[in-house]
Amino acid sequence: MLLPVLSHAKDKMLAMNQNLVIDIHPSRCIDYQQQKKVQKQSHNAVADLAFPEPASGYRADIQAKYASRYMAVANSPLATQAGCEVLAAGGSAIDAAIAIQAVLGLVEPQSSSIAGSAFMLYYDAKTQKVSSYDGRETAPAKATPYYLLRQNQSDIHSVAPVPSARRSGRSIGVPGVMKMFEMAHKEHGHLAWRGLFNRAIDLSTHGFTVPQRLANAIEVNRQELQLDANAVKTYFRANGQPYLEGDKMTNHAYAHSLTQIAQQGAEAMYRGPMAKHIVAKAQQRIGDDKARTAITPSLMTLHDLAQYKAIKREAICDTYRDRYYICTMPPPSSGGIAVLQSLGILENFDLQAYPPQQIENEGGIPNVMAVHLIAEAERLAYADRDKYVADPDFVALPGQGSTSLINKYYLKQRAALIDLNHSMGIAKAGEFGSNLKLGQDQTQEHGTTQITVVDTYGNVSSVTSTVESSMGSFHMVDGFLLSNQLTDFAANPVDDQGMMLANRVQANKRPRSTMAPTLVFRGTQVGDFYIATGSPGGGTIIQFVVKNLVAMLDWDLDPQQANAMINFGAMNSVQTNIDHSNEKLALQDLVKGLEAKGHVVNKNAQTSGVSTIMRTTQLSNGQMTQKLIGGVDPRREGVALGDGGK
Measured between alpha carbons, how far is 502 from 591 in angstroms, rounded to an integer? Predict the structure, then answer.
């Protein structure tokens, strides 16, 4: 039975957990139509094929969004609207994030899924505490270090999974995102769980207009999707052609699944019919195409699903320049440590002396020295990340754990390795004693999305959610895609020198991630909330988050300017990334300046999706009032929505 739906025709809705009628104002949550009128450039820059999703242009001239009490930012207007409606109804930041995720799984399935994974930082304004929630997938109990490398894990001569590790069932992990949300909702939810899926159920049932990025993803992945009858039924029209941008699409199976989850809780996905369907789909051996393509099945079982648990971990936090306190995600994500390491190294340099030029023009053009320093700091951080960071329940971090990796003295030593005049190219990991004989693992993560919310009570959620590569494993069941998250593990458990890798596959282990949902507070402790941010982008998430934080904290850019600024940075490789998505900017001098310092510049489009909210104080009518400022990424389709006010 379909639950009551929030609609534009309604002015009020029931706060189900309090039996109170709460006024809502839907008009405050639909002005994304105004934001969609911005100019969208045709995209001539070459897309980086290493990225999880193709570049889709750059929306120039987006203005920062202002609000007085609450705001949501996500990479889909329909999803952001769903979150904003929940906030307007008195919902908390976790309530809104759940509503947003439910819609994203429908309209942006290439980036996230209710059967994917997520990490979340949550700030509770009442207790002034930051909580970290881990909803990462796990490997099946039957998996060994050779799970992704051999069909028969115990036979060294066995062939690899077919048609590829990703397209096989071996890439599918035990999903975690809904268990994570349910855990957080029990602690921080204001509205009843069952009402948070209404908008997504409504859109699934009555249809939505296919956005450009979804249409692109279907087209790019059409060959792989056609091996799955459920995916064909969902993403292709009756004539066999994929849905195009502007078409109307429904997903009744998704509506049914969400209704079950709404009524029964997340457990509906982990036991009973839906769980059986997930396991059967993961274990599929023959494709649904005419050629009946062979597929290596997953070894996931119903017991794996029933035993899955989300984990509440302790966020990792540190100061930045003794003016800000930054909290982010701990392992199994490597993103948080790498962000804090990069910033800790950069503290040793005066970045304020190297501001961007033309800030008023989409955040401007970065200074050569600034890009050089930031890229070098990131190389050093990635080197540590590649060697040491994995699921902490299986592989311990070196020294005293994360505190050793972000230690100020250690990072000052790392900063001393930076040559102001020449790039180091490839950095070496730091040394923490001879007991850690680990190899370097440069396995890169892929597709993700970002949800950022501030509610009227001052609570904040920053969620990075993922299906891994674009449209995950291409296995579809009950209206949603299963992820290929396990390919975030190192396929080969040893490196070229025969050294074991920390991020190798092990039974019930969580693959390393780069997701870095981040919260910033003024001062040197949690309390005075300032910024919430995060980004999709696979292995380059670290670069996107660092760029945005430096832009706001060192160069005083607002969230929209920071998001719009060209992306730049480096993994631990000889290449330095300079994003050419914004065709308005002349970047020749920047590129030449970096090349003069020995950088090998990668000019391909870097498709981020940063969603940022900043809280600031402004003078209004002679009084100081607090405002929220939202910024969206012009490289995706997102919007910022709130209760208005400027």
Answer: 36
Is 448 in the active site?
A: yes
How far is residue 411's CA from residue 407's CA, in Å, rounded to a whole number? 6
What CATH number matches the domain at 12-160+444-593+604-642, 3.40.50.1110, 3.60.20.40, 3.90.190.20, 3.40.50.720? 3.60.20.40
Q: Residues 144-168: pLDDT tens digits?
A: 999 999 999 999 999 999 999 999 9
| C-beta neighbour count of 451 within 10 angstroms | 33
Type and span of the H or E element at 543: helix 541-553
Sequence spans of domains, the chain: 12-160+444-593+604-642
Burial code (b: 16+ CB inside 10 Å, e: under 16) for 80-114 equals: bbbbbbbbbbbbbbbbbbbbbbbbbbbbbbbbbbb
DSSP-based three-state secondary structure for 217: helix
The answer on pLDDT for 305 being more than 60 is yes
**DSSP states of 295-342:** -PPP---HHHHHH---EEEPPEEEEETTTEEEEE--TTBSHHHHHHHH
Distance CA 217, CA 472 (A): 11
* 192-218 CB burial, b ≥16 within 10 A, e <16: bbbbbbbbbbbbbbeebebbebbbbbb
**Residue at 415: amino acid letter:** A
Dist CA 230 CA 221 (whole Å): 14
State the catalytic residue, choosing from 448, 452, 456, 466. Answer: 448
